[in-house]
Amino acid sequence: MDNLTHSLVGLLAAEAVIRVRERKAEPALAPWTRAVIYVVSIVGNNLPDLDLSYSRISGKPFGYILQHRGYTHTVPAAMVFAALTMSVVFWLSKRREQPISRADGWLLAAVALASPLLHIAMDFANNYGVHPFWPVYDGWFYGDSFFILEPSFWLVIIAPLGFSQHSKAFRVVLWLALGVALVALWYRPFVPRANAVALTVLSLLLLFAARTMSPRARLLLSAGCFALLAGSFVLGSRLAKATVSARARTAFPNAEELDIVATPTPANPFCWSVILVQREGAEYVVRLGKAATFPALLDVDACPADRDAQPTAPLVALDVRSENRLRLQAEYRVKTDELRTLARQRCEVRALLRFARVPYLTSLAADQTRIVGDVRYDRNPGLDFSDVRLPAIQGGCPPYVPPWLPPRGDLLAPE
How far apart are CA 309 and CA 157, in angstroms? Predict the structure, then answer.
């Protein structure tokens, strides 16, 4: 997820901790401790992205795709972050002569640990994936539920909670972010007009209602809306995948289903980009399309599409439908042995396959080069961030390759 979303989830979590603490414990929470809870929660929800500071060690593009969401997005790293955070908190407490009670110290420690774990959970929810249980298990986990940047989350967190903030500067920042989110809703290529209208009206209603509410009521309103919205995306993902799987069994009876990647369009839990990954005899096959989970409201042909996309993968047209719920529009296939052979011969490919959930490769060009990449992020005719151009002769291998298990190990293993 984007860092604004992580920060806002940290704000929501801090509000919940503070309201519960003030309701159930005495004495009252000291203003300095209250401020520390906000800072620890918001900063902690961003700490795992510190891996961006060293990702270049593996070179382009391997540094980003292998090091980002790497070691710092794990449970052991969350524990280290919590310990370092609490060291800073106690040092500042002593330096500023702001004592923290034993009970509040434990509360802060819980927030310090939960915050990076929340970051990992939010990152798990999209199609990029995480591997939180390193070094015990190096495999990837994918939630396939949220778009990487989801403005509707900004709306339901900021609109109610903005009124509860005491800092004028912080309120201004929140209102600016709310404005950006509302503008993003009206970016027509991706958000249907009806969704933009509904979410804009919802934001205005939340603002109107929250003005006169108590801080606790605002928290309940924000948390409830966030949970409802997140739940609708999670449910939509499951419905989209079930639709694809059911149609695949009848349309491609000789194919083995390996994976289904589902990605919602922004601010829209009813429309999904889907990628069906299969093995069909001696071939690896990828089929791409769209799914509508509530066709009575928005059928598949009305779902937004990235019309500017010009993928590098050698796709061929396909037209497989399931009433007004599903349309598979393109297909990519290659001999499984060709992918395996290339992985054995080229260390760059082996490194890429530790990330690529839906790998593809192009045919040899006139200069004997070819491109290997990931269909999930293949949008431009040139190199996207997950693409590698292989020279005719292998150069140096990427350094510091992490031990992540290849997502498509089911294809790479010899039969």
Answer: 32
Structural contact between residues 236 and 293, judged by C-beta atoms closer than 8 angstroms: yes
Q: Greatest CA span in the chain, whole angstroms?
A: 76
Q: Is 25 helix (H, G, I), strand (E, B) or coil?
A: coil
Whole-angstrom distance, CA of residue 323 vs CA of residue 16: 44
**Rounded Cα gap, residues 43 and 49, in angstroms:** 11
Q: Are strands 370-374 and 268-280 parallel, antiparallel or unpaired?
A: unpaired
The rounded distance, in Å, linking the Cα atoms of 193 and 207 is: 21
CA–CA gap between residue 376 and residue 356 (Å, rounded)? 8
d(CA 156, CA 223): 8
Q: Within a 10 A sphere around the Cβ of 58, how many other Cβ atoms?
A: 20
Task: State pLDDT tens for residues 249-295.
Answer: 999 999 999 999 999 998 889 999 999 999 999 999 999 999 999 99
Q: Is the pTM of this model over 0.90?
A: yes
Q: What are the structure tokens assigned to 6, written together?
A: 């992580």
